[in-house]
Amino acid sequence: MAELIPVPFPALLRRLVAESRGEAKVFDLPARKFWKGSADLDLSVRFHGRTASNPVGPAAGPQDQMAQNIVLAWMAGSRILELKTVQINDRLTIPRPCIDATNVGYNVEWSQELRLEESLREYVTGSMLLDVVRAEGMLGRPTDAARDTTIFDMSVGYDLEGIRSLPVRSWIESMKDARRHVDELRGQIPQDLRRLRDLDYATALSDQITLSTFHGCPAGEIEGIVRFLLTEMGVHVTVKLNPTLLGRQAVDGLLHDVLGYEEIATRQEDFDKDLQWGQALEITDRLSELARSLGRRFQVKFSNTLVVRNHRQFFPSTEAVQYLSGQPLHVLTLNLVEKYRKARPDVPISFSAGVDNQNFPDCVALGFTPITTCTDLLRPGGYGRLPRYLERLEEGMRRVGARTIGDYVVKAAGNGAEAVRKTVTPGPLRDALVEALASPRADLKAILEGAGRGELYEAVVHAAALLNTPALVAKATADPRYRAPQNRAVPRRIGSRLWLFDCISCDKCVPVCPNDANFVYETGVHSAAYENYRVQAGAPVPVPGGVFEVKREHQIANFQDFCNDCGNCDTFCPEEGGPYVEKPRFFGSLDAWRRLRDRSGFFVLRADDVDAVWARIRGAEYHLEVDRASDRALFTDGVVKVELRHSERRPLSATARPEAPEGHTLDFSAYLNMALAVDGVLDARRANPVNAPYL
Ligand code: SF4
Ligand code: SF4
């Protein structure tokens, strides 16, 4: 199974600096996709008593498990990052592929695929890289507290025993106080970047947790975990609840009768095992009270994914169920929010379910904080889809004359006057507020503060969010864009098959990879006949090979250490075969190349003037050494060795080892594959994960 392997901090740092300076991009996200924000609008929100510069960020999922993911999500506009769930069982075997974002959105993946210690290092690394981004002005504007204040939200799972275990407890403590890890990484900053050693890196990374429990986790277990986190770990808590709370009849009714997804089948057992409605209300009451008594904060998150039968052929048939996300979950979850708000209107809600740029402003108008997204960022454009969320929100704010998120909630659905009437006692202040709402420049907060009643502002905003709920839920439920006919399209295939080089160069596979494992590099074009070497009477003899032809300069490669075989780049590639399977795969270490013997791929080591390359191609192993100063290369399959003038790809001589098997043939095209791919990825003009250590 593919495993994610974090790369050392200095290599990430070098790449970040090189790309930002030389290529106007960061981890392959081009500068035009960086979120800059508008200075005249204030998108800030409060989450668990802290300020974040806007309410959006990735849900605990594939977009925030590695350090580069955190940076990518942030550059594109995320200011509340729910880090991927960690748990005591950090040796998971996840079926592959594990993500199907073809149209609706299904997955069979769940928690962090890294070891606990690795996750911690990735999150600390991500936080430090963000400090570098801010300090070096990589967004293309000066750092600005109003637009760049960020919250890291931890996510832990899945049962009380695991969360109480010493490793998970010390993991949480280390996120609360990461000084030791920050200092360790600070010490690794290379000499030529020493100016970055003195930055004031954040060390208190997070004091809040979103709890993810198993589908089917008993009520007592959920409550026990939250109690433990609030009382013994001293953190604020959000508990993520399941869409099964809506009840099977309502879920099936919405899925089948309203939205038309007749092929999606739920199972009664999943509704029976999950938290029941009455239990959910009782435990949220008790936990809200407990948090209040401890001076901590508690809220709920709607929602987790929905367990449904695995009815497609995408995931292995060994998986009986899959987890639904995307468009249908958006409608289900909004309906669940409406039901919950009728019962418990005052519990703060964070939201995640089929969020995209079109529905994001309405999610804001519903008063959700944070609003997290996942499936949408797996589609073409990847993280680069996020700025549009915030642009559309800003457009909506300008349209209704709101300068702050609070004012937007009040004004977005025309419920401001009613919210004021519900919150402010009759009199001149109430009249002034209602009157001001008619003006596009109304500043309710200023009016309330001017009257010495500033504390009422939050109540007005909350009342408006509650009033907005029925209308905005009904609007989404009736919207054809969430229905089955609008969500059956599959990405176009053009019939051709990928191989190591050349393709239609659409570059879709780069941003759709949440881990930035695919990258663009350049080769020279090449077209020439070549000869193989066959052992005859103990000596290698040239024999006809074939024609090796690479027609394009623009190529795609894959960095194995960042690739977990999730399959998402294959979903959106117009050609057959999967970029992560067919394109040259580069390992980050010789150890990984040796360990994952079932995979083709390369490992490259550059030292002084010599590039050493280990390759496995169609099961055969090769070694290449290139002395760049003398332009000489030695290429061997362990039996026959060829000396070459490397820049001309021209053999000079060949030898065979003693007792070489008669008839053994060295495939010279393997050298051509290695030479083109390796020379291309090591080209320092384009930073990538392979050449990063040498930049
Ligand atoms: S590998 Fe596929 S997705 Fe990537 S650039 Fe080539 S054709 Fe496009
Ligand atoms: S390269 Fe493709 S298969 Fe690998 S992690 Fe990225 S999207 Fe998934």
Can you tell me about this structure?
- The chain has 695 residues and is of the alpha/beta class.
- The protein is built from 23 helices and 28 strands.
- The strands form seven sheets. An eight-stranded parallel β-sheet has the order 5-16-15-12-11-10-9-6. It has a six-stranded antiparallel β-sheet with strand order 22-23-24-25-26-27, covered by helices on one side. A four-stranded antiparallel β-sheet has the order 7-8-14-13, with no helix packed on it.
- Strand 18 and strand 19 form a beta hairpin.
- It is elongated, with a radius of gyration of 28 Å.
- The chain binds iron/sulfur cluster (SF4) (2 copies).
Write the layout of secondary structure elements.
Blueprint: H1 9-23, E1 25-26, E2 29-30, E3 45-47, E4 50-52, E5 56-58, H2 67-75, E6 80-82, E7 99-100, E8 106-107, H3 116-135, H4 145-148, E9 151-156, H5 160-164, H6 166-176, H7 179-186, E10 208-211, H8 219-231, E11 236-241, H9 248-258, H10 268-273, H11 277-294, E12 298-302, E13 306-309, E14 321-324, H12 327-343, E15 349-352, H13 360-365, E16 371-373, H14 386-400, H15 405-412, H16 416-423, H17 428-437, H18 444-450, H19 456-478, E17 518-522, E18 526-536, E19 539-550, E20 554-559, H20 568-572, H21 579-582, E21 585-586, H22 590-595, E22 601-607, E23 610-617, E24 620-627, E25 632-636, E26 640-645, E27 650-656, E28 665-666, H23 668-682
Helix pairs in contact: 2-3, 3-6, 8-11, 12-19, 15-19, 16-17, 16-19
The protein binds iron/sulfur cluster (SF4) (2 copies).
